[in-house]
Amino acid sequence: MHPTIKFRIDSALLAEYTWTLQVFGQYIGFKVEVVTENYDIYVAEHGLGDIQVSHFFRNTYESGDKQFKAYFRTSPLHFTASNKPDYLSSCFYLLSYLQEYADYYPDKYNRFPFEISVQHHYGIHQQNLVADYFDQLYLSMPKLQAIISKKVRPTAFFLSHDIDSVYGAFGDNYAHLIKKMRIGTLMQLLFNHYIKTPDYLLLNKIMDIEDEYDVRSTFFWLVNQGKGTRNINNADYNFKDNNVQRVVNEITSRGWTNGLHKSAGKDTFENELKRLNTSGTIINRNHYLLTELPTTFEALQNAGVQIDCTMGFPENIGFRNSYGLPIQPFNFTTKSPYAFIEVPLHVMDTTLKYYNGQNAQQAANTILQFLENNKSNALISVLWHNNYFFDYADTGWITTYKTILQFIRENKFEVITPEQIAATYRLS
Fold first, then answer.
1. Is 60 exceeded by the pLDDT of residue 222?
2. Which of 361, 368, 362 is nearest to 382 (CA)?
């Protein structure tokens, strides 16, 4: 049972600070009640506050400026007029994805580019910076420490697989197998492709690997085929095909989870969720990590999605909002949290292979270093596409994934399900 801490907030940013304090309370282990008298903690824009916030931050925010350089001059930390760290305002800016609401030149897929982010500018994309700021905020308040002790929170994991392709194994591996004169393997691929079950649909292989480590994952399915917006390929399979549906049902029967991989295109979440037609927690990740704020968040909210897993940088592993734990994002229109929980993406195979140009062993080293640096206060979300389990040209990517699972087992970290996420990370 978490205690309730009463806060008085003397600021025009009442809703913004209330939401940030709720996330802070979830991190430390208390509930937030905002009052005008008989309070435990005082938040104010002057030195009498237990938490002092910056009037300059408020003025800049109310002016409509969303660019990070307006808030962070020499480091990713805002300071008050008396040169005190304003951890609360800094956390609000980072947590809320405010930089992505500014005007910017998108990448070729109309996404927010990593290279213009505050995370890139200050080299902090692999730092769980908001958690560090929350720790400093807690340590700055003896009153709060007297009421509640902060417990160490071991990192947990969320594992997932985007099913972009079912029939790609033959085409992806043809040239390599011809070059290596592996004709028998090539003929087996051809047989599987046209007659039996195509290799990329042999998802039992993934589940069997995860079963060895006693972990479960989520499979995200595309329900639309063909070309989408910006010439993006959606599924090369028909989701309603009997072979596909047999595997979808087997995933459920074995205790794994199916979710929506929202396609690139004008189709709505509502329509795609109807075609997905799975039971349990409604969970999604957008294809190509396509996101445009606030449009994407509004669409997720309106469709009743309970958990979204999209918000990661395609170009680099790490924390897109500088925080390692799921949140209910802030709705700038209603000044309240969205109803869905955002589980940001932190580690993706494609990031390391294509964006960073790493081979499987280099990727394993990069991932292990990131995991070693974040063994507490995070829910690390890992995406390993199904085709990486069937790469005949570079079989090391299976080993890299197993390296992650071995790290989890050796450190006795928990791998949690969408149902556990929904029960744990909803703001009270």
1. yes
2. 368
Residues of the chain with CATH 3.20.20.370: 156-424
Comparing CA positions, the residue from 99, 90, 93 lying closest to residue 134 is 90
Say whether the peptide bond before residue 76 is cis (omega within 30 degrees of 0).
Answer: no
**DSSP-based helix, strand, coil % in the chain, nearest 5:** 40, 15, 45
CB 273 within 8 A of CB 297: no
Confidence of residue 171 (pLDDT cuts 50, 70, 90): low
pLDDT above 70: residue 428: yes
Phi-psi region of 230 (alpha: psi -120 to 50; beta: other; left: phi over 0): left
pLDDT tens digits for range 32-91 = 999 999 999 999 998 899 999 999 999 999 999 999 999 999 999 999 999 999 999 999
Structure tokens belonging to residue 105:
């030149």
Handedness of CA 289, 293, 299, 301 (dihedral sign): positive
Dmax (CA) of the chain:
79
Which amino acid is present at 134?
F
Closest CA to 281 of 306, 256, 303: 306
Long-range CB pairs of 69-74, under 8 A, 24+ apart, other chains included: 69/121, 72/118, 72/122
Confidence (pLDDT) at 2 = 87
For 4, phi then psi, to 5°, come to -100, 125
What is the percent of the chain with per-residue pLDDT over 70, rounded to a whole number?
Answer: 93
Three-state SS at 146:
helix
Q: Output the six-digit token pair for 310.
A: 């999209």
CA torsion, points 8, 14, 18, 21, in degrees to nearest 10?
Answer: -70
Q: Which helix (H) or strand (E) holds 272?
A: helix 269-276
The DSSP output letter for 180 is T
The secondary structure of 323-382 as a DSSP string is: -SS-B--EETTTTEE-SSEE----EEHHIIIIIS---HHHHHHHHHHHHHTTSBS-EEEE
Give the DSSP per-residue string, 379-392: EEEEE--GGGGS-S
- Architecture of the 156-424 domain: Alpha-Beta Barrel (3.20)
Q: From CA 250, how far away is CA 292, in angstroms rounded?
A: 34
Strand pairing category for 51-52 and 41-44: parallel
Looking at the predicted structure, is the pLDDT value of residue 194 above 70?
A: no
Tokens of residue 368, six digits: 């292990």
pLDDT of residue 167: 82
